[in-house]
Amino acid sequence: MSQLSPLSESDWVLLVRNDSSAAFQHLFEKYSQKLYRFSYSYLRSESDAEEIVQEVFLKIWENRQNLKSDKSFHSYLFTIAFNAIKKRFIHRQRAEKHKHALLEWFSQEKPSIDSRKDFEYLIEKLELLIDQLPEKRKQVFLKRKKEGKSIAMIAIEMGISPKTVKNQITEAMNFLKKSFCEQDDVSAMLFYYLFLSNPSLPPEPDE
Predict the structure, then answer these.
(1) Which of 186, 178, 163, 199 is closest to 133 using CA atoms?
(2) How far apart (Å, rounded) are the C-alpha atoms in residues 204 and 86?
(3) Taking a C-beta distance cutoff of 8 angstroms, is the pair 26, 12 a contact?
(4) pLDDT higher than 60, residue 61
(5) What proportion of the chain, given as a percentage, has pLDDT over 70?
(6) How many other C-beta atoms are found inside a 10 Å radius of the C-beta of residue 13?
(7) Which residue has the higher pLDDT, 177 or 138?
(8) What confidence tens digit (pLDDT) does each residue in 109-127 have?
């Protein structure tokens, strides 16, 4: 009696496209460590490399209906990862730029008392605005922007879809930017550094 031939990579991809979580898990186990080593070789950060792996496979699952079984899954996977890594480097550069600008403003040779009070006022105002968010949106926002959790992790913890998580974050950011950043350049700079340019927090996986 002849043995059944093992499934090819294209067979596994086709199964994922047909919503097989078992096939998805198989591909994750096959490629996650390779993807981690690839990401780490560029980023030199364990947490960043782990985030890249999560982002890539989250994108694969969310877009599984568009997977091409006749194309190289390996190449597709690492192309997504490389694009995410490039975004991470751009994010780091912007973070450093705005960090230095903010510190230069706040660490003047003779900072005035008013400047320090203004800084504390801006922080307090931002916290009050966050408190005005609807409860679920506030929870999602804080988990992402303050606790640094990934989209996938938040979705699991809150029992909602990754798309819902991203939508909630977008709505929160739009509200806060509109309410806070229009005051002056310092407000915009502070907001950018605290929530858009945190070096430990990756950009949203939207590619």
Answers:
(1) 178
(2) 13
(3) yes
(4) yes
(5) 70
(6) 24
(7) 138
(8) 444 445 555 666 767 777 8
Q: How far is CA 59 from the centre of its chain?
A: 12
Q: Which two tokens stand for residue 54?
A: 């999560």
Distance (Å, whole) CA 17 – CA 68: 8
Average pLDDT rounded to a whole number, residues 87-97: 72
State the Rg of the chain over Cα: 21
204 occurs within a structural domain? no
Parent domain of 17 = 9-196
Instruction: Give me the chain's average pLDDT, please.
Output: 78
Q: For position 37, what pLDDT does the model report? A: 93
Give me the residue label for tokens 């003047």. Answer: 108
In a domain, 206, yes or no: no
CA proximity to 99, closest of 202, 178, 199: 199
Contacts for 106 with CB less than 8 Å, ≥ 6 apart = 115, 119
**Domain-embedded: residue 1:** no
**Positions of E strands within 10-97:** none
Number of domains in the chain: 1
> Which residue in the block uniquely carries the two structure tokens 């407000």?
187
Tokens, residue 172: 């929160």
**Chain segment 75-84, per-residue pLDDT in tens:** 999 999 999 8
Could you tell me the CATH number of the domain that includes residue 43?
A: 1.10.1740.10
Q: Is 207 a member of any domain?
A: no
